[in-house]
């Protein structure tokens, strides 16, 4: 079983992509909004939190875990996961872990440097200040310009996808990136605002790593399936996905639908333990 971890509903975009590729695969989704935002946690606290949640998910039967959160992915090297994936040991067993940052980096590196000479990176405070994108993408002929876009994930969590306040914040955040050739969405929440980014930066190529991560997971963690006719809704097998949150289940359900058009049934509230 595969688990997905995000501080909030940003990972729902990845979940939707994965379900489209493998609707038969059961998934556990863990939203940790009861905890302090991952981008604001000290490194030591975030390390403990990711390890703690991984152990919980392993105990629930997950053997593989996708960290669909850039802030949490910044600490994976300190947990022994320096690249695309690695194995994390917990008190209840090992779990294979994959982060999202490596996929964003690979996408940028695959672009033609003659066409993408400047790259903008927008993300939360921890992601940008970690320097992980700057180190991976800087140097040579490519210019990397980073911007902290902290308010945007909160807007998506609140279902605020179009408002004068959001437009003002976008204009301020993106103003120094007006001439970039590509824009890396270094937060999975931002995919819900793709149309707004394009409106502000019409000439920039948007780089969203979630589809690449979904392709990687489908190819390496899920058994390939032969092409078959798409079943009707009536005949499609029902898959028991498990949705967990340390926050408010009702808010999670509403946010997932507004941001990613994902309908969630029952959500289990789990106690937050620091």
Walk me through the topology.
Blueprint: E1 2-6, H1 12-21, E2 27-31, H2 43-59, E3 64-67, H3 70-73, E4 85-90, E5 93-99, H4 101-110, E6 118-123, H5 125-129, H6 132-137, E7 143-148, H7 150-157, H8 164-174, E8 182-186, H9 194-200, E9 205-207, H10 210-220, E10 242-245, H11 249-260, E11 267-269
Parallel strand pairs: 1-2, 1-3, 2-10, 3-5, 6-7, 6-8, 8-9, 10-11
Antiparallel strand pairs: 4-5
How would you sum up this structure, described in words?
- This protein has 11 helices and 11 strands.
- It is of the alpha/beta class and 274 residues long.
- It has 2 domains: 2-100 and 211-269, 3-Layer(aba) Sandwich (Rossmann fold), CATH 3.40.50.1860; 102-208, Rossmann fold, CATH 3.40.50.1860.
- The protein has a 7-stranded mixed beta sheet with strand order 4-5-3-1-2-10-11. A 4-stranded parallel beta sheet has the order 7-6-8-9, with helices on both faces.
- α1 (12-21) links the parallel β1 (2-6) and β2 (27-31).
- The longest helix has 17 residues, at 43-59.
- Mean pLDDT is 90; it is low at 225-238.
